[in-house]
Amino acid sequence: MSRVGGQLAGGRSLAWGPSPGAVLRGGIPPQPDFWNLPLDDLLQALQTSPAGLSEEEATRRLRLWGPNETAPRRHYRALGEAIHLLLNPLVLILLLASGIAALLGDLAGSSIIAVIIAISLALDFAQSHRSQGAARRLAESVAATTTVRRDGQLAQVPFRTLVPGDVVELRAGDLVPADCRLLHTRFLAVNQAALTGESLPVSKEARDLPMSVREAGAAVNAVFLGSAIVSGEATALVVHTGPATELGHIGRVLESRSPATEFERGMHAFAALIARTVAALVAFVFLVNTLYGRSTLESFLFAVALAVGLTPEFLPMIVTVTLGEAALRMARKRVIVRHLQAIHNLGAMDTLCSDKTGTLTEGAVQVAATVPCGADPALLTDLAVLNAALVSGFRNPLDEAIACLPNRTIVPMYQKVDELSFDFNRRRVSVIVRAPDGRHLLIAKGAPESILAACDFRDLAGRPVPLGLSDRAEISALFQEQGTRGYRCLAVAYREVEARGSYRTEDEQGLTFVGLICFADPPVEGVAGVIEGLRQRGVALKILTGDDPLIARHVCAEVGLPVDQVLLGTDVDRLDDIALGAIAEKVTLFARLTPIQKNRIIGALKRRGHVVGFLGDGINDAPSLHTADVGISVAGAAAVAREAAEIILLERRLAVLQEGIDEGRTCFGNTLKYVMMGTSSNFGNMFSMAGATLIFPFLPLLPVQILLNNLLYDLGQLTLPGDNVDPELIQRPRRWDGRLVRNFMLVFGPISSLFDFVTFGILWFGLHASPTVFRTGWFMESLATQVLAIYVIRTMRAPWRSRPSRGLVISTLGAVGVGLTLPLLPMGTLVGFGSPPPVLYLFTGVTLAVYLSLVELVKRWFYGVEGAASSRAAKRYPTPGSVSR
User: Fold this and answer.
1) Which of 338, 423, 603, 737 is the most buried (most CB within 10 A)?
2) CB within 8 A of 383, min separation 6: which ones?
3) Mean pLDDT across 270-275
4) What's the CA gap between 225 and 254, in Å, rounded?
5) Is 23 helix (H, G, I), strand (E, B) or coil?
6) Which residues of 586-612 are buried (b: 16+ CB within 10 A; e: fewer)?
């Protein structure tokens, strides 16, 4: 393995390859304080230059040092997934039992069990592999990338392909992709809260440090993985990647796993219930059959088969396929789901928080008017253009609109000296320029009240005049009037400053007020209908904006969003979290907010039990995107916002979110159909068979027949992920309710068992069936009623008023057809079936009709009258469609 090394000043050695004693993957350089090293020595040690690496050398280093990932990526491998399925404890027990049966001479029974297991595993693997592969490709389509210099050219590459020695270009809105030494900066400000916990941006510059510092956060000449560029731009040398980064050292990862959704937590509780029931049932059945003196092997196989029948083993696959298919459908609508489980939260979402710009409005901002307030109109335009053109960092729509004003030719005449970046406390940005006559001017632009508070003068016909109280009242009334017309205003002011190397925010005082730039952002066409659609679906839209409340209220009125009360950022600061949550539920519009205040509102709503989505695209939206249950961003958003989001809109349309909510609720409903069908059906059937062992002198079904019944039942439910869902069932948020799932099981499980024992009595006492015919008849009747009950209980409506999907019809009828035909075929004898007399088919048909009628009656009783049932399902029941035998 090659070694790249260098000798530093003072004889200090710096190794950049595998070295004795290095306990790091692939020889990643163990140098935690590279910011203290002279830049030339660092470049020499890395054997690179400010021009970057060649593609060939970068590929070699990637093989040597591994990908730029703080924790090893959990790769999805087909072989690993197959092994995972094979190592399921129930599968292993069945394989062991099959092997024992073969050793004891029962080759037919052993082979049939093995074939059934193989078919089940193959189906599970094929469906899961397809869905997970599709989801992985969707997530990779919006993976984080960075601009790197390779072969003298700029190229976009994924974060994970960066290596020490690469040179990257960083701009406002970018995430820092690795630990880097700065080569060049231009008014650079970085948020490194992920490293230091400090929420305010810090300035960075490219220079050697005058003295050594120990803490990475204090290194002004370096940026670190997990940080975000707030303003300015930089060229940086990649020094540490992967586990060798500062975040890697302290065991934190940039892309942490999202917390378990409410649905996942419910599924875990459900799995625990199933596990306890399986353990108790297996022990009981095995003990009873042993005490009755039956074959130990047959008793063991019967108990294990019951456990398999009781376990909804296809549930993980059903969940994966349901989510994967929903993600693919959303992708066709230009929505990328980065984390599949977010679809569940999207369906459960009852509150959507968003800025108005680009959501209610087009986001295509235009300058509607310039209001000089007594100054020369040309002066106002010149100063606004200079500020917008020379400010560094993320280009916002307001600056883009100002750039379309005339007088752009004056920009080359002024030299930028310094910049005071925007922050949400000052609410303004200033540039310091040197004019052609040598004077230094500070030009400020920002929120009118912020600029006005920093002004002592106003410009009247080219001369500064002291700003009196009446002047302030006049200007305040002017921009409030513009706000009532729906215009957003920025104020412009200036002052002459003395020439020096750098400036501070304290220099933004004694300014001369010049005038207002007014912007128009028309409402999105059709947004009123979308807002009404969200309301009908039980989703409250709340606007969280930094804009003036008058402007925001005007826009809300234009799109039909009712606003009874406006809560300002200053009001938010005066409330504790409990009071804020109570008030936030009732308020639609929040204005003049900082990012921290937005985050508090989202947290307060979550603590009140709401499932909250947040739509944001700015650098400072990342905390709120992370806090929300569903973080939503857009393809053109800042990189830090995209990485914090779980759902990416390739087109900024609120309508696609409405469609996504429908997909989430459809996905949730179809998943619960399988959960609750399996619960009631399996509990009823398996308890019936367990009880039958106490009554009859033979097993009601052979182990292989139980496994075959379970396989055919699961095949019938395989198409549930694509089933139709009644429109009324997507009108309200869908959330996991364990109590209702339990109650459902307790109502329909015993009904199924009661009906089973009636069936046993008719077969045994009425038809005087032999054990073989008894098993054959009950197998056919059990499978038919168990599978076809889906048509009755998949909907709250009468079955004929709700159309199932074509796939569900084919799979269920196919499964029942196989079950009814198999006893007539020669292979039926291999699994213990006898040739059924015609009366068994008549019995099965009558039983099916009676059972489905009973299920329909109980369903109507369970939900009450039809009108009350719809309301109850909307408010309480996650989805009906889950009664089964």
Assistant:
1) 338
2) 443, 445, 492, 494, 514
3) 70
4) 8
5) coil
6) ebbbbbbbbbbbbbbbbbbbbeeebbb
Asked if 843 contacts 767 with a C-beta cutoff of 8 angstroms, the reply is yes
With beta carbons less than 8 A apart as the criterion, state whether 539 and 575 touch. Answer: no
| 150-154, 385-389, 432-436, 757-761: the lowest-pLDDT one | 757-761
> pTM of whole model > 0.90?
no
In the chain, the amino acid numbered 112 is I
* 3 state DSSP class of 16: coil
Place of tokens 């499964």: 815
Q: Are 468 and 492 in contact (CB under 8 A)?
A: no
Q: How far apart are CA 792 and CA 729, in angstroms?
A: 16
In 145-242, where do the E strands start and end? 145-150, 153-158, 167-171, 179-191, 202-204, 222-223, 228-240
Tell me how many degrees the CA angle 533-534-536 measures, rounded to the nearest 5: 65
Q: Are strands 540-544 and 566-568 parallel, antiparallel or unpaired?
A: unpaired
> Rg of the Cα trace of the chain?
34
CB-count burial class (<10 Å; 0-12, 13-18, 19+) for 24: middle
The three-class DSSP label of residue 92 is helix
Q: How far is CA 6 from CA 56, 211, 688, in A?
A: 21, 22, 77
For 724, the 3-state DSSP assignment is: coil
Binned at pLDDT 50, 70 and 90, residue 709 comes out as confident
Q: What is the pLDDT of residues 21-67, one digit of tens each?
A: 333 344 445 456 889 888 988 888 888 999 999 999 999 999 888 88
**Strand spans (E) along 573-729:** 589-591, 612-615, 630-634, 647-649
Q: Where are the alpha helices (DSSP H) in 523-653?
A: 527-536, 549-558, 569-574, 577-584, 595-607, 622-627, 639-644
How open is the CA angle 428-552-599, to the nearest 5 degrees? Answer: 65
Q: What is the phi/psi pair of residue 238, to 5°?
A: -75, 125
**Nearest Cα residue to 648 out of 336, 255, 329, 327:** 336
Please state at what angle helix 107-140 crosses helix 315-332, rounded to 10 degrees: 30
- Asked if 147 and 138 touch (Cβ cutoff 8 Å), the reply is no
Res 387: pLDDT: 92
Looking at the annotation, which residues are catalytic? 355
* Per-residue model confidence (pLDDT) at position 150: 93
> Distance between CA 260 and CA 245 in Å, rounded?
28
CA–CA gap between residue 540 and residue 531 (Å, rounded): 9
Rounded CA-CA distance 666/722 in Å is: 9
Calpha distance 433→414 (Å, rounded) = 6
Q: Are 513 and 491 in contact (CB under 8 A)?
A: yes
Q: Of residues 575 and 702, which shows the higher confidence score? A: 575
The gap from C-alpha 803 to its chain's centroid, in whole angstroms, comes to 31
Q: Which two tokens stand for residue 52?
A: 């970057």
Collapsing DSSP to helix, strand or coil, 513 comes out as strand
d(Cα 648, Cα 652) in Å, to the nearest integer?
Answer: 9
Helix axes 771-788, 703-717, angle to 10 degrees: 20
Confidence grade of residue 123 (pLDDT, cut at 50, 70, 90)? low
DSSP for 246-312, please give it: HHHHTT--SSPPPPPPHHHHHHHHHHHHHHHHHHHHHHHHHHHHHHTT--HHHHHHHHHHHHHHHS-
Q: Average pLDDT, stretch 577-594? A: 91
pLDDT at 24: 37
Do 337 and 142 form a contact (C-beta atoms < 8 A)? no
pLDDT (tens digit, 9 = 90+) per residue, 507-531?
999 999 999 999 888 887 788 888 8
How far is the C-alpha of 589 from the C-alpha of 355, rounded, in Å?
Answer: 10
Mean pLDDT along residues 125-145 = 60
Per DSSP, helices labelled H in 367-515 are 377-390, 397-402, 448-453, 469-484
* Three-state DSSP class for residue 158: strand
